[in-house]
Every structure is written in structure tokens, then in C-alpha cells.
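Sat 14:20. Reprocessing the chain from the morning session after the first attempt stalled halfway. Input below, unchanged.
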Amino acid sequence: MTEQRLETLSDAVSQAHTLIQQNYKNIDPVVGVSRNMRANGFPADVMTIDCLKSGKRIILILHDKQPDTISFQLTYKDADSEGEYQTIPSADVTSQQLYNWISHYFSPLR
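Finished this time. C-alpha cells:
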């Protein structure tokens, strides 16, 4: 189940990434997947979406015990995550939602 959720999220991010590259020449997000939490005994996978120019980062966490939600935080790459993670239903994390987060949060005017 976790692999399928991660694959679904990866597909949505890929679609959003393609549209971002078409519509925003100044934003080139870098996507990464980490299994470090799982390797350290936490049943979760992490996806990061970084903007190298601004140093901003979107963190998405897929918890095995919360299959219907995704935790997320808008933060900075070189800063420790502060504050609470927000949760959103997994079904709402579509390519359009990811596109909206990336375009708004990584925009140089913000």
C-alpha cells in the first residue's frame, strides 16, 4: 500500500513539475524521496520539493498508519522544520494542488 501511495504521489508531482517548467522559467523544482525515516524505525516515507534559487522546501510525509492523509510543511531547505505539520486528505494532493503549492510558495515575489 505504501509503495502505491508513493507512486501515486510521484506521478502527481511529475505532472506538476512538467507544468511548472512550462509556465515558470524561474522555478526549477528538485524532487527527492527519502526512506531515512523508515530505515530509522519510523513507518513513513518523505518527499521533498526544493527550489534551489530561493532555498524554499515543501515536505510531504506519507505515514503508514495514516493512509488517508499526507502531512506537509512549507519550510526552508537549510532550516530545521519549525511549527506543526498540516495534514490534508491524500485524495486532495493532486497534480493541481502540488502545482499551486509550488507556483505560489516558490514564486520569487513571495
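The longest helix spans residues 2-23.
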